[in-house]
Amino acid sequence: MVGRACTGVLVLTPFLVLLLNGKHQPLHLSELIEVSILLVGLSIVSVVSLAPRGVFTDRVDTPLFLCVPFLVWAGIRFCPLEAAGACIVLCGFASWGSLHGYGPFNNTTAMPLSLAAYICVATTMTLTGAATVASQREVSEKLLETLYRLEKTKDTEITRLSSELDSAAR
């Protein structure tokens, strides 16, 4: 019971905090299309990974690692809000599959613990990567802004010194 609550807090809280924070930039049309493709792809891979055996594949071991590229894509390409949304999608499909007896977590006695560990690892990996990338973007933007100001100041100073030299030469 405590594991499920902690997993829910780990997945849902970052999404709600980021959503209600209000500092989120609106997505451009191309980014909106890209995030839609990401979420549809993640949903398809999640259904394939967590579907009952025999629906898509006869393999006993389901390829859970197929969801990782989509989570990395969300963490690197988008801001932490979209990455947290991707984690919610994965958590929803993993929980749904396990509750209905599908996927790799249904045949173990420790199913809730295995499911919670999978969701926690995937969410922590995604949100940590997204926070790191967002931090690096912020630092890069501040450096570019500082460089722009220095260039502008340099041009102003060169113009001022040139004017002083011209007036001193006369």
Element-by-element helix/strand order: HHHHH
Mean pLDDT: 82
**Segments where pLDDT lies below 50 for 5+ residues?**
none
**Helix fraction?**
over 70%
The SS-based structural class is: mainly alpha
Q: Helical stretch count?
A: 5
- Give a short account of the largest sheet: none
Alpha carbon gap, first and last residue:
87 Å
Number of strands: 0
Query: Can you tell me the overall shape?
Result: elongated
Radius of gyration: 24 Å
Per DSSP, what share of the residues sits in E-state strands of 2 or more residues?
under 5%
Walkthrough of the structure:
There is one protein chain. By secondary structure, this protein is mainly α. The chain has helices at 2-21, 29-50, 68-77, 80-99, 111-169. The longest helix is centred in the last third of the chain and has 59 residues, at 111-169.
Identify the notable features of this structure and list them briefly:
5 helices, mainly alpha, 77% helix, 170 residues, single chain
